Sequence to fold (214 residues):
Amino acid sequence: MFAERKTDRAYVEPADTSAIQQKLLNLPHILVLFQRSVGLHLAGPDAALSDEIADLPQTPDRTVRVSAGLGIAHQLHRGSSKEGVSLYAGKFGRNDYVRIRGETAKEVWFAQLLLLFSYRTRQGHEPELAFARWLTPARKPAHAKGIPLTALKYAMVKLKGIRPQVFQTDIVSLSSIIGPCFIQPDPLDAKVFYYNYWIGNTANDDPRHTQSVM
Fold:
């Protein structure tokens, strides 16, 4: 469920996207990455990262509907709240880090939410989605070797026509999100972060079985 949803034609009208750019933290090339990710999501398994944006499909009404920054992920795991889990992306200065279900029961991926949005399908449905940037395993700096936390960094990828490397982003369904998690920065290395299981874990699960990352 999205809160305070409004319509913004960011997906096909890049000349009028200042508000969306701000929601996306003004990251380098981020609007292009958003448009590409939406196109890849619509294209499904037949899409390839090398595809040009112009060759990718667009939403049926050529728009996306951007949330004001608050979404609710409803979960069915043991111990979850019947009211759902609140997620923030661009509201109150928050862009939540979240844990996302992987491809197997014990696999968990980590990402940061950049934008919550939906679009109207040809069947009239409005899937509730998030635009996120992935985190991937990182080598622990020498000063952090004794810290019993999972080390992460932002995943980067090289895309045709864009230099240098850019953040690896994707579209994920809100229903695939386990919940927000606490990711803390390394005090000495700005590129490294740590997943702290003992703070803000909403899933009531065992960290020994949820350490796989994308």
Observations:
- The chain is about 10% helix and 35% strand.
- The two ends are 26 Å apart (CA to CA).
- The helical segments are 18-23, 30-43.
